[in-house]
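Shapes recur. One chain:

:::
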Amino acid sequence: AGHVRILEKKYGDKLVLLDAGDLFQGTMESNLFLGKSVVDYYNLLPYRAVAIGNHEFDYGDKKRGGPDYLGALKARMLQAKFPFVQANIVSTATGKPWREKNLSPSTLFEAGGYKVGVIGLTTTSTPAKTLPRNVAGFDFKDFVAPTISEAKALRAKGAELIIVLAHEGGDQPGEPIYEFLRLLPKGTIDAAVTGHTHTEIHRVINGVPVIQSKTRGVYFGRLDLYVDKATRRVEPSLTKIHPMHWVCGTWFKNEEQCDHKGARDRMAKGTTKAADFLPLREVRYEGEIVKPDEAVREALAPYFKKTDERKTEVLGQAARDFEPYASGESEMGDLWVKAFRWKFPEARAIYLNGGGFRRRFYKGAITYGDLFEVHPFDNFAVAVKMNGRQLKDFVRVGVSGGNAIPSLYGVKVVYHGGQNPAFQRDVNHDGRFEEWELDRLASLTWEDTGKPVEDKEEFWVATNDYLVSGGDSLR
């Protein structure tokens, strides 16, 4: 908020503050209140529009477990003083675009004397990236056609600049945002603010400046667009894409950042020491000292008071740091597997999605807050009866490369690396190949006997409700 206040002071109504989705999920302050705290915060800032990310659907009903799986999201839309936008979600029941109060395909407003249109887009992978039942009534369409249609409508209404808010990423050939912008006719939009893939993007793709600012709300991106006063169109040669900027209350001694978890990792590896970070120093932006916003602090204080009481509860001790591995089974995953073995002794196999583990435990006290940050999702542990063919389908998707490698118990998995075209399949018969459909599974055997898992044999598998209901493309 302190950075935004500085920009407001300098640029006035020329400032266009946007968010590309996933406002909710991942923190106790958001989840315990079903996102209400986040919208209270956003309402205090001059947001012009926000896109809908896959995690906006996570909370389901506002009373948890009720019949309307969009209840919590609808409540947040009504609470918001800014518009939600999405143009590519269609109701399967009516075949018409999804609409709600305070939800539209785009919004049009004036900034700096020019009419600005903003179009929202939501990743087509949403059914695999939230609880599928919460979005069962929707079809998530490809971006190109809705964008062309909506941009045409906005231009007809006088839009002089059009910005896409896309909850999707990938700025390399073959990746979603790159391919979307490659196929989009030049001049359709003037800029794109993206999200979802937790990466840093600040480049031009097919004439469109694109930014994305990683994850966790600890960074922000900035894009300066200049408009020719005569033509009233963006002058691309003057566009400036700023490097991603840390949102910090204080900076480290020798670095303009405040990644405390990263600092702990570096110290744990012995590559640096505390003296390299301390003493902390004040943050400056645009030549001014960044100060906390007292209105924001006051509004969020009741939420933090409730969560702080729970977050500091000590649950146990870690004798050492636990290592996370991005490309395979991890010590964090193994720890969760052991917990599932205790909970479900009847399970012959355990399957847990690797993407569910978001950080590691560090040596020392483990608090409830630590536990929540490691696994911030409201999933339920379940045991289900499966046959060998179903387990193979689970594992086949798990090692496809479309998601993080799962953590397993009870079976030994051998799979091929790489993206060999010979492994491509069209599992859902939609006429196109997706990464999760890659069949890299070579063999699946039981750890205790060494025998192959047979298609028709039945057994109990411990997992979570997100996966059983079709998450991570387990359809």
Observations:
- The first helix runs from residue 2 to 11.
